[in-house]
Amino acid sequence: MGRLAGKVAVVFGGARGIGLATVKEFVAEGATVFSSDIRETAETVEGAAHSLVDATDEDQVDEFVRGVLAETGGRIDVLFNNVGIHLGKPLSDTTLAEFDNIFALNVRAAFLGTRAVLPHMIANKAGSIITTSSNGGVMGRPADPVYNATKHALVGLTKSIAVAHAHQGIRANTVNPGAIDTDMLRGTLMSPEDFEAKQHQLTASTPAGRVGEAWEVAKAVVFLASDESRFVNGVALPIDGGKAAGAMPGNRYSLDFELGVR
Ligand SMILES: NC(=O)c1ccc[n+]([C@@H]2O[C@H](COP(=O)([O-])OP(=O)(O)OC[C@H]3O[C@@H](n4cnc5c(N)ncnc54)[C@H](O)[C@@H]3O)[C@@H](O)[C@H]2O)c1
Predict the structure, then answer these.
(1) Residue from 10, 12, 16, 18 whose mutation best tests the ligand 1 pocket (most atoms within 8 A of CB)
(2) Ligand 1: which of 182, 210, 243 to mutate, most ligand atoms within 8 Å of CB?
(3) Can you name the CATH fold of 8-259?
(4) Is the Cα dihedral 69, 4, 164, 150 positive or negative?
(5) What are the Cα distances from residue 19, in Å, to 13, 35, 168, 195?
C-alpha cells in the first residue's frame, strides 16, 4: 500500500520541475492528486488532474479549491505550495516593481493557497501543508536578497501556521532545496549553454559536489505529506547536498555572486 493511500493532495505549481516530480511521486504513493499551474502540464500524469490556475489570483485559487472539495466530499489532506519565481539581482539594482512582483507571487501564492485550504483541514482535524522555500530561506546569500526575503517569509508563515494549528491536527513544513536541475535553473537563471559551462561552479558551492534532481525534493515532500512524519511540524528541511550546513572552503559566496543563483 502506498504511503499516501487514501489521501487527497492539492498542488500549486505542478506543471513542471519540482512540482511535476512531486505530482508523480504523490500518485505513485497512492494519493488522489489535483494539480494546478498557470501553464499546461509538461506531462500528463495518469491519476492526477491538472487545472489552469493563477496562484496569485484570489478568485481563481478559491474557485479551484472549492471545485476540489466538491469532488472529494470536503477532503483535502495535503497541500503543496510550490509556486515560485526567481530574481537574481543585488538590492541596489532591484526596482520597486520587481520587489512588489516577486513578493506578490512567491508569498501571496502560498498565503492564498493555505488560506483556501486551511479551514477544511481544521474541520477534518488533519492536514499536512508543505511549502517550497529554498536554501535562500534559511541563510543569507548576496546574489538574490529579495528572492531570499520571500523565501524567508515562507518559513515564517509556515512556522506560525505550525504553532497556531498543531492542536487542530495540522502540520506545516517547508522544503528548502539547493540548486536543483529544473527549467528554473537552466532557463530562467541562466542560459542552457551557461548551465552546461558553469556546472562546475554550481557543484563547487555544494558539499555533495553536484546539483540535485527534482525527484530528490519530491521524495522529501512525500515524507512530509505522509503520516510517517506525523510528529514533524514547523521544520525548514534543506534538500541541498549539505549546502546550508556551512561554507565550503574557498569563496563560495563570490561564486554565487558571479552566477546570480542559489
Ligand atoms: N530549481 C532550483 O534550483 C530551486 C532551488 C530552491 C528553490 N526552488 C523553488 O522550487 C519551486 C519550484 O521551482 P522549479 O525549480 O521546479 O522551477 P519551475 O519554474 O519549473 O517551477 C515553478 C512553477 O511555478 C509555476 N508558476 C509560476 N507562476 C505561477 C502563477 N502565478 N500561478 C501558478 N503557477 C505559477 C510555473 O509555471 C512553474 O510550473 C519554486 O518555488 C522555486 O523558487 C527551486
Answers:
(1) 18
(2) 182
(3) Rossmann fold (3.40.50)
(4) negative
(5) 6, 9, 27, 21
Ligand 1 cavity residues, CB under 6 Å = 13, 15-19, 37-39, 54-56, 82-86, 105, 132, 134, 177, 179-180, 182-185, 262
Average pLDDT over residues 66-87: 97
Per-position DSSP letters for 169-224, written without gaps between them? TEEEEEEEE-SB-SHIIIIISS-HHHHHHHHHHHHHTSTTSS-B-HHHHHHHHHHH
Mean pLDDT for 61-90 is: 97
Where on the phi/psi map is residue 124: left (φ > 0), alpha (ψ -120 to 50), or beta?
alpha
Residue 253 annotated to the active site: no
pTM comes to 0.95
Q: Which of 26, 80, 111, 147 is catalytic?
A: 147
